[in-house]
Amino acid sequence: MWQIFQPEELVGKLWHRWADRRLRTPHFPSEKVTFESFQKSLGVCFRGFGGESGMSIAGTAPKASGHRRSLLDRFGSHGDRTSNAFLNRQGVRLPNAIDLFPHR
Amino acid sequence: MDVATVGTTVDENLPYYLPNGDECVVFEAAFRHQLPLLLKGPTGCGKTRFVAHMAARMGRPLYTVSCHDDLTAADLTGRFLLKGGETIWSDGPLTRAVREGAICYLDEIVEARKDVTVVLHPLSDDRRVLPLERTGEAITAPSTFMLVASYNPGYQNVLKSLKPSTRQRFLAITFDFPPAESEVKIVSAESGLPLEKCRSLVDLGWRFRALKNQDLDEGASTRLLVYCATLIRSGIPPINAIHSALIEPLSDDDDVKAGLMEIARATIG
């Protein structure tokens, strides 16, 4: 009720809720697949497909992605945090977990 | 029969073997000059088939002994047996081979007990004599007798290895899996599966071999590829055949098997 007397707060909150709903990537925690549960099989696959045997395979935590964003996205949120897969001299890095798909 | 009169026959009735180098020439020269031969190589790469092929080519009977932890010199040379209240001498496979001038093949020789080398030493140098301690005989090997032994260097450890004094009595040939294109022909000839289908199977076999010493103790042998192709030829879906003939025999680890299955799905489709 007190928000009626603070219209900036109210508008900000409504805007955030609307923008968040529009921009939010759906997640499915119950269908989450963790890197840890597949680490050994992934290593076998990597080497079986020709990957170097000495390379380490590890998980990566989410980081600010820094990708180009839409105007609405720039107004509506602080930006995404994503776990990106990459390969460098040290080895292969894969997301610690993926829960973006409705089914495993 | 003298070694000089033994002919080399190469016909279609011989056990199938596709040479990958000069191994047939070396074997024949060893046979002609009465020299023992040692074959080294991983399991299922064709050592036993090679010996069967060459024995048939030389026209000599073949005695194959699969050596194991409990194999003693007496198992090779023979023993006294009780028969109808009488004690009679029964020749072992090595003694029979020596008497008949045959080829005796000792598979995985390092598995045998140490006393086996006692009977092999006088037989594998220029004396070519098999002493039978229990009967007091010393059988001189005829010129057509040949001793062939094999082992897998990948299984060796400090406790199980051939002594230099034994190794240096043998000529030696190292075997490995045949080059991919030769292996395709071998798998196709053995299983009857068309060459094109064998090609992707051999490709998969080489991918599995790349995992040796890290994810797998041994890579997929040519023998397993032949088993797999035989199952596919009999109508079993390729992925099921691969699971039974390649993946299950290679590992007991569920995670490793899951990884191998993914490689198989991507390679075979």
Tags for this model:
heterodimer, A: 104 residues, alpha+beta, 3-stranded mixed sheet, two-stranded antiparallel ribbon, 3 helices, 19% strand, elongated, B: 269 residues, alpha/beta, Rossmann fold, 2 domains, 5-stranded parallel sheet, 11 helices
List the helices and strands and how they pair.
The complex is a heterodimer of chains A (104) and B (269).
Chain A: H1 7-23, E1 33-34, H2 35-48, E2 56-60, E3 63-64, H3 71-76, E4 81-82, E5 86-87, E6 91-95, E7 97-98
Parallel strand pairs in A: 2-6
Antiparallel strand pairs in A: 1-7, 3-4, 5-6
Chain B: H1 23-32, E1 37-40, H2 47-58, E2 62-66, H3 73-77, E3 78-83, E4 86-91, H4 93-100, E5 103-107, H5 116-124, E6 129-132, E7 137-140, E8 146-151, H6 164-167, E9 171-174, H7 180-191, H8 195-209, H9 222-233, H10 238-250, H11 254-268
Protein model, in words:
The complex is a heterodimer of chains A (104) and B (269). Chain A has 104 residues and is α+β, with helices and mostly antiparallel strands. In chain A, 36% of the residues lie in helices and 19% in strands. Chain A has helices at residues 7-23, 35-48, 71-76, and strands at 33-34, 56-60, 63-64, 81-82, 86-87, 91-95, 97-98. In chain B, α8 (195-209) runs antiparallel to α11. Chain B has a five-stranded parallel beta sheet. Chain B contains eleven helices and nine strands. Chain B has helices spanning 23-32, 47-58, 73-77, 93-100, 116-124, 164-167, 180-191, 195-209, 222-233, 238-250, 254-268; strands spanning 37-40, 62-66, 78-83, 86-91, 103-107, 129-132, 137-140, 146-151, 171-174. Chain B has 269 residues and is α/β, with parallel strands linked by helices. Chain B folds into two domains: 3-174, Rossmann fold (3-Layer(aba) Sandwich), CATH 3.40.50; 180-268. Chains A and B meet through α2 of A and α11 of B.
